[in-house]
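Hi everyone,

Forwarding the result from last night's run.
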Amino acid sequence: MYDYDLLVVGAGHAGCEAAYAASIMGLRTCLITINLESIAQMSCNPAIGGIAKGNLVREIDALGGLMGRIADETGIQFRLLNRSRGGAVQAPRAQCDKAAYRRTMKKWMENTPGLTLYQAIVRDLLVRRGKTCGVRTVDDNEIYAKAVILTPGTFLNGMIHIGLNSYSAGRANEPASQDLSRSLKKLTFNLYRLKTGTPMRLHRKSIDWKRFQIQSGDPSPVPFSFRTRKKLYNQAECYLGHTNENTHVLIRGGLSQSPLYSGKITGTGTRYCPSIEDKVVKFPHRDRHQFFLEPEGLETEEIYVNGLSSSLPLEIQRAVLDSIPGLEQSVIMRPAYGIEYDAVSPDQLKPTLETRILSNLYLAGQINGTSGYEEAAAQGLIAGINAALKINRRKPFILGREEAYAGVLIDDLISKNIEEPYRLFTSRAEYRLQLRIDNADRRLIKYGTRFGLIGKADHTRYLEKQDRIRRVMAFLTEETLLLPESRERLSLKEWLKKPGFSYDRILSTHTPPLDLTEEETRHIESEIKYEGYIKRQEKEISQLRKTASQKIPADLDFSRVSGLTKEMAEKMTKLQPRTLGEANKTPGITPAALVNLHLHIKLKLNRPSR
């Protein structure tokens, strides 16, 4: 007798999305968490989105998930990154009210039909005949279910480091889940250690704000969710600051007390969100590093110092702040710390995020080696959907790399040897020109509707939007324009393809059949301007797939391959892949880098010998 259809262990961003999706799809679901007041806690930066991450949030929303809606509801500053550049690299980012985000998500969880919240610490997985059938808590309570999704975040055997002082915790002042880690090892899962960190929090009134450069939100905020109807407003400012050479001298002098450089921390840290001591050591030529002062919320005085993540001792953290003009009198409310935790090698997962070792066990979030709220939420949503599909004996849901960044994320996790916390970038996607924020609904809403996660009213609004776009596209194709500086009469669509021409400019002499929103006009511009590039990109990728057996010359100097980063060139030199297919399995290789390598080899082979 099962108590529930599904158990979700951990109520972070992955767990909440998984539990919500499964419940809406009809499963009797129980969401188990160590502390009900910490649901969807933003342990690191209280912000959602960013390059590629914002794309993921849009995809989560198009599939029927929650992150975008809650970010819109609790956001206090909104920015569309790369607004002046092409649509393929634009992405929304919102500074959120940390407490409001947590409260809002908890309210959603409490009001989701079929979903039960339960506060407990899980100790073991229950297994029968190779299938996961429930969990055992530390008070020996056994809860049975048809499937389990684990989303423990950094709690799996977590260890916090501040200088050379360490203590067991999954987050500051919250207990780690050590028994569950031992349980996974006993079940023959391959675990490895990762490390991340967070910066100090300062008291707002102790900062000399005049010494920092203001970073305002956009005048017309762009929402994350296609379902957001209300107008968004900026309610807070962020500020930009920089370290200096005095700061760096202090950090270098304190490295012997850093757990990162003394050998006390053995886990691999995040390459793309390094600690300040990592930045100083790895980039000695830089005389300063930027950081941002960002509010934790509207009803708190805490300021997050984005860019000063550290595991240095508190006294050195204090000295570092004293070296920065404007922070000399700042009051530390919470010290910065590093945290080590266990992760499961993601090559032990199926594309559905079900484990290969145990049937009916799914993993999502940082346990799979990823970093970031957005990557976790996307995995949680996919895991929740697939658990519901399997229990209801329906076909699994697997997104292709050409369909979504979420597809790229999961494919990278299960097919590449992840050695460090994984972060999504646009460069990881070979189809990135098609995986834009403006067309996420067109790519994915059909799935959200199929699974019952997108309601009828929202789907109807989507169809109305697509009809408006089709009508304007037909207008742009049919109407022509002869500009005074040109002898060519071209369609408005052809003019829009040209550099320097915007939607507003070509319509200065024409009246479209109906008005579009700013979001819709950006979509039309991207579709038209990228049309030729997308066709060319698809052809290149198709050819690349056919040439996986292409041999790499033994004498190839990878450092001379244009577009190959120094890090990737070093990895290639060390591993010496013999074919492009082998090169594609190099940890961290991006599709763009693979294309550059392929083109370099073609040029080398076709170059006449001297």
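The chain has a mean pLDDT of 92.

Cheers,
N.
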